[in-house]
Batch of 4 targets.
Target 1
Amino acid sequence: MGTLYEQLSLRERVEIDIGRRKGLSMQAIGQMLGRSASTISRELGRNGSPTRHWRGSYDGERADGLAARRRRWDARHKLARQPALAITVRDYLAMGWSPEIIAGRLARQHGCTIISPESI
């Protein structure tokens, strides 16, 4: 049997934040929380990088919100999430176009990748 893994709690994320601000290593923070250093490293990598909307470093409360949002994310197939795109793809397929041609045409029309041939 594998080991049981529990999600990091808000309290643990705040402790990671405090530990980083104190200059503690990932190993020290992991020992303090009873977690491995790799768990701390993954957490900081996922939730500690600046983005277009966030210029700061790791913040425990923000990280907890990001993790909650990822858990709620609708991971269904892109065509199931976007009915208008599904109709467009279906119409092109009905005309005999290949997924590669459809993806290329949509990318050219929109100026960026809309869907990959594998998703079609």
Target 2
Amino acid sequence: MGEVRAGHTLGRYELLVPIALGGMASVWAARTSGQLPRIVAVKLLRAELSDDPDFEAMFLDEATLVSQIHHPNVAETIDVGEEDGVLYQVMELIDGEPLNLVLRESKARGGVPLPVALRIVGEAALGLHAAHELRGRDGKPVGLVHRDVSPQNILVGYDGSVKILDFGVAKAASNLQRTKVGQVKGKYAYMSPEQAGSEPVDRRTDVFTLGIVFYQLVTGRHPFLAENEPATVRRICDKTAAEPPRTLVPSLPEDVGRIIMKALAKPRDERFATMAELRRAIEQVSLAAPLATSDELAALMQQLLGPRGERRRAAIQEAMQIARERSIDTDYPPPQPSSPAAVDPPGRTLVERGAMAPRSSPPPGGRARRWLVPVASVALAVLVALGGAYLLRSSPGPRAPHGRGGLIAPTAGSIKAPLLRAARAASKAVRGRAAPGERAAP
């Protein structure tokens, strides 16, 4: 694929404006085709990742799996596909900012208030627990682990919502890079000891990394950050526990400090066994340190990053207007070609892979068949009428009855009436309003 610009289409998605750029992908706001366009987020993976056939296969499979997670604290995966050698993922567009920006902006204002920190971590735990509990078609847990829980992958909405991002990309990349010597997937500063040591991981890996995020929210510091990445990894993997957060923030409630330290336990057996346990622990301490409401979180987001959100919304609206002007007719788009390849340019999507139910749509040639039936009915009725007229002209006229029960030749009126009724009914069937008691000719 060449340079991607606004107006470029990937399958049924038209790119509008770039909204984020990361190490693995760029993210665009896009609109879907059709009479009721929806604004979505389309993530384009880097070319070097898309070129790897192993990564491509795992990415498509993992994204198919992740699309089955439906939870208010998880960003919904709508579609995934490949086109012109580029893999892309389609997600709901969330009007919000990544948590790392919230941390940066709040630092100058004395840090994130504790009730807000408790709410963010508690909501993130709910989303992660929903992913961990995902089951396959056989009813068994699939063992999904995020493996990349970090402030960049926790999105805070301007409406006060909290969403987890990037399940599929993180797990697929982990599977790929695990097979390559010397490579470990994930941000080095947000790994569990077992993950950094290339050991098998489970949901407690996500508990540890969410504990790192929790620590940052209440103290403003990373618990293991050192002068460089290798030193940071060594601090994560050694047996020395993190410095208790209350040594940095003496006003922090003791129960909150204990929750953080339990999530950050180096032996995984000493951590919370599930995200649900972590969430319950937060709810128990919220009596002394109540959680912020979604309205309070929304108000904080507006104070910290409101102008940034307004600029992005304005850019998307402007791009939408340009896209409308580029369309021939937004309200009544021209009929699409009946060929599936023409409707959706080359590329594989979840619908085509059978992972997501497609919308009901007429089969190829369906429009033609809908018009063929009434037109054929009218033609048949006209032919029958002409045949009847010919019979009338050639008829010798009425014959006298042959006694009781004898046959009587049909008169012109007895022939015309049913023919006219049939023709009238066929004509009204074309207009879709047959009169009561009338029906189209067979």
Target 3
Amino acid sequence: MDGDGAENSKPNSKSFSGIPEAVFVDNVDEFMNLPENSGGVDKVLRSLDEQHGKYKFMEYTLATKRRRLRQQIPDLSRSLEMIEKLKSQTDEMETQFLLSDQVFVKANIPPTKTVNLWLGANVMLEYTLEDAEKLLSSNMATAKKNLECVEHDLDFLRDQWTTTEVNMARVYNWDVKRRQAAKASS
């Protein structure tokens, strides 16, 4: 998670990225009598809806991160496989490189002790095969750990927005019953 939640890395932590926990409204009467809910039902429902929207946005952000990590892991795996091939190579090998979609070019690769790795942001560096393998292995471990954290946070987040939706329904139904009771008594 790029350093997110390092302080929350306990196995039983609720969220690795600091997602606020939605509190289930067990007793709506007590909840509505709290001082912070003195603005009435509409204010409470708006607040819950805003919280729900924040959870949905967090879900979108985490899903994007998960998609990126799910693409990154196979790429790293293929790169590690290629380094293993290059380390065991004794003769010149013929291969094909992907230039762009559906366009390949043949190339002969002589035995080598170095490889160039694309680091992103227009940066490519030359590494020895051993250093490249260490770097890619480290990146793979980090990506897998980050994916695990993102998956955990997405599960936690789904629980939070479900709790918020239930709270919204409970407050709304409480208000309907309150209005019906007021109408019946008058």
Target 4
Amino acid sequence: MKRPLPDADTVKAAIDTVLKQALATGRRPTVTAVERHLGIPHATFHRHYRDLVEEHFLPRVPAPAQPAPAETISGRTEENLSRLRREDTDLRHTLALYEEAIRQLTLENDALRQHAAIVPLPTGRGTPARA
């Protein structure tokens, strides 16, 4: 059983409500919010009410906030790049130190294994106790 779709006036009222809520909360209004408000799936809403979105909703959506001036962005970007390059250099140096330490430990381990005599340890079973 299909649920009847709301008429155009109900959809316009829902659009108005979502726009007012977005203005009050400082958020950007979305078509998804209108769909949720009406309880209609996106495909159905788009198929039946596309013209209302284009005529009644989109013209009333405020433009997105302007980005920061290019000078500020490029200054911060250059600072970030410099910092990241320094960190990269430091990390590469640290990695080289660790690689050398691992190499030395590997060589020492191999040398110890080759020269070590294997001595069996008493198990404690059947061995006479020392007095």
